[in-house]
Amino acid sequence: MGFLVLWLVMTGADSGATDASVAVDLRQCIEMALNRHTDASLAAADLASARAEKTGTRAAYLPRVTIDAGLGYTRLSSPIAIDEGDSTAAQAAGFPSHYFGLSVYQTLFDGGRSWNGATRATREVERKRVQRTAIREAIALRVIGAYFNVLTEAKKVEVLEKALTLSRDQLRLAEARFGIGTGTQVDVALAKVSEGQDRVALERQQQRLRATKVRLNLALGRSPEATIAIRPPRVAPIVPEKPHTEVPSHHAELQAASAAQAVAEVEVRLARGGHWPTLRGVAYYQRQGTEVGQVYARLDEHHDFGASLQLSLPIFEGWATSAKVQAAQTEVQRQKLRRREVEQELNAQLVRATDTLKTLAAIGAIETASITAAEESLVLAQERYALGMGTALELRDAQLSATRARLAAVETRFNLHIALAAYHYAVGNLLATYLPVTKRSR
Q1: pLDDT of 292-301, one tens digit each?
Q2: Which residues are 107's β-sheet partners?
Q3: Domains parsed from the chain with CATH numbers
Q4: Which candidate, 438, 358, 441, 424, places its Cα nearest to that of 3?
Q5: What is the CA radius of gyration of the chain?
């Protein structure tokens, strides 16, 4: 409850923390990144390429039909004899030639390579699909982190602006007291030092804000120097009462690792197919002659037709097939280890995120009381100084304590959002939580 009170108290002035341009909220930032980021575009292109390759694998087990036609002219260097009844005449040997043929080729058996090639392409499409989902989740996580980092730095700018205003008021008060003889020149000097320190702190904080906006632009797939203004959320983050204790099997990264393992397993069967013979059938129909009508008319006459079976049996190929099988089996083991590594890393992320959520929620309640106490202390120090009972050092110390308490509360507030996003990423429902299904591109 204390953290929620802190949230509502600090939300009021957020609207002025961004640029003067049209502001976007978190959902719009995620949508922008998914539509514009290069990684998302490359993942979509990889998926489209895998689907096209899957279509191409059908050629391996479907028949191949070709039609050939040709025209030529032949002239011999010596004349040929032509029988003309009782006499023989000589004529120069020059004549055209025409050819037409239809051939059908069909692979009858190849050790399962054609079928396994199609299976591999299907599993590769699935791998690219879940990999695209994992990439989109990672993009969203980066956007959420950058988005709340901008809000953190912008809110800190507001806190330091208020601190600078307070320091300037204190400088004017010290100068006024010195002017009427109730203050010292030391108080004026200390007030000037404090005002200068707060101006430097504000300049540095504004630079950090500009740097976080550059990182947000990059996460969104925009130009680094583009102007951006964001709207903060108006509700406190909802920490799950019963968080997950392990990563679910439907997590996109786990599915991508499993799909990569499935592709590697098919590669083993493909490599083993090289040990088997290949059997192909060929059927052909062809006609040829010196006249066009003789070749392309009355196709049922004067033609050749034939069929054959071709058997290719690998006897020795330098152990190349065995090496391919061994390499494929090694890749399967590597992908199994890779999946285990991904699962361990995701579980570690889940543990860290869950612990961070609990810690920040507890700290938030403490910081609510700390801000109240620091502000009360600052008011008392201001009153004592105005009455001549307190010192400038005492007032400065109270001012710094209040500023530090507000800055710490800002960190906790937005870090809780980032930790919550990390938790949802670890359990595999980040986009489902921050972006409704109707808003997500398929």
Answers
A1: 666 666 666 6
A2: 280
A3: 2-58+109-278+318-429 (1.20.1600.10)
A4: 358
A5: 39
